[in-house]
Amino acid sequence: MKDELRSRLEREFDTIEEVFTIGGRELVILRPRNADDLITEADYVKDERLPYWADIWPSSMMLAERLLEEKGGGRSLIELGCGSGLCACAAALSGFDVLATDYYDDALLFTELNTRVNAGLPVRTRHVDWSAIPTDLGTFDVVLAADVMYEPRYPAMVAGAIDRLMAQGGHALIADPGRIAFPDFITEMETRGLLIADKDGREFRSGEIQQTITVYRIERHAR
Predict the structure, then answer these.
(1) Is the pTM of this model over 0.85?
(2) d(Cα 90, Cα 115) in Å, to the nearest integer?
(3) What is the pLDDT of residues 196-223, one digit of tens each?
(4) pLDDT at residue 52, rounded to an integer
(5) CATH code (residue 37)
(6) Domain span at residue 199?
């Protein structure tokens, strides 16, 4: 199954395989070589959709690093916007029961392959639109997202998704590089009774790129 899926993706996409050293562990990720090649006018006209999922962003690397430090212990975890699956791989390796979601079906295929390669088994995947969370998704011990505040309409969507999907006593881990919309996300969380319980700044350096990525732990207000 793994080889068949790889062959299919390599036929349908111009791919690149990259090795990321995260927390001392090497993760091998297959992804489309150039996200710009995936842009279609139809998708953009429909909802201004752009294929950000095909790139591996610094926030994903720092969140994956954080996940490799965690002990999943079989706890349920849902990722909002899994992209090519770097964080899903880290979560699976840490022992979480992972559901990886994305708005792009192609992202789910790459995540399935990459988790098979790196974690030895595929995680569950599902197409999810943040503006219309499926009613049958249930709730999760951990809700995960990396660098998702890049559009003005997303803070309300993501805060709403966390509120809907986070189990009682659970938490969310959100990695952000300082996007301009993040303060709006804080406001949206507060209106839903969610708060930042902790934040963990991590330095990302790669060549000339230097960023501070903050991983926020979000919980519900105690009542």
Answers:
(1) yes
(2) 9
(3) 999 999 999 988 889 999 999 999 987 5
(4) 81
(5) 3.40.50.150
(6) 2-220
